Amino acid sequence: MATPLLAIAKIQKKVWDGSLPLEIRLANADCRTYDETDPYLINLPRLSYLPFLLPRLHAFFAPSLINPSTPPHELWLSFQGVPLKYHHPVGLLYDLFSGAPPANPDDDEVDAEETLPWKLELRVQEFPPELMGLDAEGKVVRDCFVNGVKEADVIRNGKGNVYMGLSKNDSDVLWEAVKTHNLQRFNTINNKLLNPPGTPLRNIPMKIYLPTAPSIINPEEGGDSTIQASIRTVQSLVAPFSGTRMFALVYYTRLLLGNMN
């Protein structure tokens, strides 16, 4: 019988090894030719981030770009016209937009195979104002990741001094492990975050992603009021939506991965 530590390691390995096939095409508005370009196909780890792909996408589509001098960090990706946030893992983005079953059981069911590979569009012009601007060095994406780690640290231990106590080398190793998807290097630092000496685990960090939070009429107040998202109010917040996949998704309990992104 597997020991608890071995069972946890197997679960973490299974989550870490999850991947997602992508089919990325250049938008017609950004293509210099009338003929459609070949798509860029890749199997990307679900825990990876889209900005890691931008240099490779730029190199692949450069011959077809209207303005090939546009730097990679100014490109952006969308799904069915919706800009994709760069600071969310690609697996989370897929589950929010394509991976959920219909909210109404009477809706036509869509097999997972029909949504894969996940078809995305690469854009150059009209960078969406709702997306954060990236930088050539990747500092913006790293800062978002680090902020998530700090949030998780505070929730786990009641204070954020565990991550703040890491050396610069440890912080660099953690980020490089995320970029290169190296579980062994990741765990050398992650274990320091999850098991700090003399600091008992107080809470499990979790984020609940609500694609939509409709207003709910509160008769006592005589108007609309949006109830704050929490475990106790998820059912009240998210009513069934016919013909849509928008639903409350409790996603990515990051106890094993020590991250709140």
Automatic annotation (TrEMBL):
Domain Autophagy protein ATG5 UblA: 15-123
GO molecular function (one): Atg8-family ligase activity
GO biological process, alphabetically ordered: autophagy of mitochondrion; cellular response to nitrogen starvation; piecemeal microautophagy of the nucleus
Keyword tags: Autophagy, Isopeptide bond, Ubl conjugation
One GO term describing the cellular component: phagophore assembly site membrane
Principal place of residence: membrane
UniProt keyword Ubl conjugation, yes or no: yes
Subcellular location: Preautophagosomal structure membrane
Membrane topology designation: Peripheral membrane protein
Segments forming domain Autophagy protein ATG5 alpha-helical bundle region: 139-195
Family: Belongs to the ATG5 family.
PANTHER family: AUTOPHAGY PROTEIN 5
Record's protein name: Putative autophagy protein Apg5
Protein's organism: Aureobasidium pullulans (Black yeast)
